[in-house]
Amino acid sequence: MDAGRANSDFGRFHRVKQEPDQYDEPDQQSPQRNQGADYYEACLSIRAKISIAKDILAKLSESDRRLALFKGTCFGPWLDIQSKYGDPLLIHLMLQTQFFPEGALADEMWFRIGGHELRFGREEFCLITGFRFGPTNSLPEMRGNPFRERVFPHLPAHKPVKGSDLLSVFDSRAFAQISDLDAVRICLLLLLEVGFIGNQPSSVVSDFRLCLVEDLDSWDRYPWGSYLWALTYKQLKNALPSRQHHVSLKPDKMAKYTLTGFVYAFKIWIFEMFPVARVWASRSDVIPRAVAWKRTLAITCERCLTFLDVDDDGSQPLMGLSPTDAERETDWWKDSKSFFDGVENDFERPAKRVRSYSPPPSFAWFGESSPVAAATTTGPTPLEQRVAALEQTVCALRSSQQALEAGHRALKARQLDLQAGQHAILGSIGPLQETMERVLEASHRAAGVKAFLSSFGTVHECVTSDDDVVEGAALMIIGNVAKQTPPLHVCRDPQRLKVATTLLPCIRFSILTMPLTEKDS
Q1: Where are the domains of the chain?
Q2: What are the residues whose beta carbons fall under 8 Å from the beta carbon of 473, sequence distance 6 or more?
Q3: Would you put residue 138 in left (φ > 0), alpha (ψ -120 to 50) or beta?
């Protein structure tokens, strides 16, 4: 199909009006209907909710150790994802440009836009997601499930763990009470089940994944690229060919369909291939590429149309994706590249071979095609046992190191608290010294008053304390000023009080503040 006809047919789709608040719907395309000769509209729902990465980041940020542990896994970079929208309008439009060339491999998809033929396959999926590719066929069965026994002890053995069980622990107070490693395992499973695969809360979490997450090293080495690509490829390839009846629907009815799998990676591939995407989104220089993109404007029907307009200079799509120098140096690309060059197709799974033992968790990711797995059909060799023991020791050392680092941070915080307390104590010494000086001065004054009273021989027998002496002195001074006798006569004349207050501002006059009687007046 030429570009002119594509634009003409899609123009009817372009002119359909939508409410502005529907553009930012992350999961579901706005339900509209406008039949075209080559393009039609449909209500597409994308099950995978990559936005759960933001919820996981918020939860793990409550603990520095948990956050560091998760970021150290192969899923760690996804906590920094910048866009949570699935953009189903763009996905549905691009799927309608799919064609099936002769001689194409069974694990790739082709799209034709304005004479440009674009491929979306394993290599592109790997570069976008940063997930390792490798053999996944005939994965061995494993005995025991310690992770399930620790985190879900309330579930009967015959009852499977579901996505709702993971969410229940994640959203409850129990999440703060489980170990840091088990908290990270819960988050890894949630991101995989909800964010990448698109399973519903009622979906069962496979025992294999529950066992695999027990050994985080094996989890990181597992070829998640191969696993997720197989699910996503099947969904995308058959999305529209299996729904040809959509075209025959009446104009007043809307075609609807749902996609599971990691469809978000397909959207990022569109952004990477078409320069016009930089008008609606921005890209930073980080790895993997899916984390680098941030949508700045909503992808509306009108803006979707610009992806088909590839006639102008600078608007033509790229011929393909190639790894950067930084991507070539990553372990996941090196391993995946070796797999791409040595294995043509890993989708057809051979029949499983019977094992008489359950391999150590560290070897759980090897398939039957692995030389290690093929050589150990009767039992683990001493070398494998030593390697497994070493791997467990390394895991224990890593955990100890992380605990020491957390303790070091706590000690530094305590040191800062002690320094702050020291500064506070030093700051209070000055006021304490001033108070002591005032006390000494008052003591000297009291001694002077006693001597003054003794010189007149008028120390009253009830004078038993410094306070009494001070009050007596005040009364004597008041009497002397008024030229009255005896000097200790109690008088409450306001003028005399004013004189006494002026003379002795530091002496307490509690006795002089009693209510006045008619006699006193």
Answers
A1: 1-45+85-121+232-342, 50-83+137-222+350-379, 419-513
A2: 449, 452, 453, 504, 507
A3: left
CA distance 206 to 193: 10
Residue % of the chain over a pLDDT of 90: 45
- Beta carbons of 19 and 300 less than 8 angstroms apart: no
**Average pLDDT of the residues of the chain:** 76
**The pLDDT value given to residue 421:** 80
- The one-letter amino acid code at 179 reads S
Mean pLDDT value across residues 460-488: 49
Asked whether the bond before 288 is cis by omega within 30 degrees of 0, the reply is yes
Q: What is the pLDDT of residue 91?
A: 94
Amino acid occupying residue 258 = T
Comparison of pLDDT for 355 and 501, the residue scoring more: 501
pLDDT of residue 286: 94
* Residue with tokens 């093929």, as numbered in its chain: 374
| Matching residue, tokens 């023991």 | 389
User: 């009364």: which residue's tokens?
Assistant: 475
Q: Which of 346-355, 400-409, 425-434, 456-465 has the lowest mean pLDDT?
A: 346-355
Residue 289 near residue 332 (C-beta atoms within 8 A): no
Instruction: Specify whether the CB–CB gap between 10 and 308 falls below 8 A.
Output: yes
pLDDT at 378: 39
User: 180-190 and 52-60 helices cross at what angle (nearest 10)?
Assistant: 170
The pair of structure tokens assigned to 167 is 């969410």
Alpha-carbon distance of 366 to 344, in angstroms, equals 18
Joined together, the tokens standing for residue 188 give: 């890894």
When comparing pLDDT for 204 and 250, which is higher? 204
pLDDT of residue 426: 83
Identify residue 150 by its one-letter amino acid code.
Answer: R
Please enumerate in sequence order all residues whose Cβ is within 8 A of that of 94, keeping only pairs 6 or more positions apart, or say none: 111, 266, 270, 307
How far, in Å, CA of 73 to CA of 190, rounded? 14
- 3 state SS of 178: coil
CA gap 41, 477 in Å, rounded: 106
> Which residue type occupies 57?
L
Distance CA 19, CA 194 (A): 29
Tokens coding 406: 């957390």
pLDDT of residue 416: 84
Given a contact cutoff of 8 angstroms between Cβ atoms, the answer to whether 477 and 449 are in contact is: no
Strand pairing of 281-283 and 255-259? unpaired
The pairing of strands 255-259 and 42-46 is parallel
The residues near 48 (Cβ < 8 Å, ≥ 6 apart) are 86, 194, 195, 196, 197, 198, 260, 261, 262, 263, 264
pLDDT of residue 274: 94
